[in-house]
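For the sake of transparency, this paper describes our internal protein records without simplification. Because each token names a local backbone shape, the row as a whole describes the fold. One such record is reproduced below, unchanged from the form in which we store it.
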Amino acid sequence: MARIIALANQKGGVGKTTTAVNLSACMALSGKRTLLLDMDPQGNATQGVGVDKNAIGAGAYDVLCAEAPLSQAIVETSIANLHLVPSNRELVGAEVELVDEERREFRLRDRLQEVSAKYDFIFIDCPPSLSLLTLNALVGADCVMITLQAEYYALEGLSELLQTIMRVRDSLSPNLYVHGVLVTMFQHTNLSKQVLDDVRAHLGEKVYKTVIPRNVTVSEAPSYGMPVVTYDPKSNGAHAYLELAKEVAARG
């Protein structure tokens, strides 16, 4: 059965989608059967692997609201071993349409059970909010990866997210846990180093040893519909994500 990891943070701009795209690509390139599930209505993860979000058939919306089998929404990408469940603005409607439905928090988990045996890893890119879409992702996942930008306010909101994860675990998904915390956009400055030290002091071994540097190619790659590991495999950003994939695989 796949290890299902939700990438979550209610703050935007912290490298969550970038990490979902690149970590998925690195896992696939290492030979792991990998599924990337885009649960963000912005559809950035969809475009990040070269799929036009405006030209998709079935997607995450159909899986949640029309109860379409997940297998109907899966599309191949240009990267071997990497499949995608795409998303676009239609997914915004799910928040309204599901609000009065029974077992609305379990829609995604029920669908994931249909395909879990076909993959080694499933990564879920959550929207930058603690919404019903994020709740579905957390209930459907085995564990959570939290991305934190190496900036002054890095820890702001982290306690709220951790409390949300604990509430989901206590009431809906008793085996949910934090797989790890990833520091992104790291620079060799005193501020970045202080942030990293503070995060490690608070969370200890939960913080990945790998940090993701602020890197131009990481920022450029999405505009070409490519993960950085295929856009510029020799870049520092690509190397960091390859190391992260090894670390995530080792943790299981």
Summary: The CA atoms of residues 43 and 88 lie 5 Å apart. The chain is about 40% helix and 15% strand. The mean pLDDT is 94.
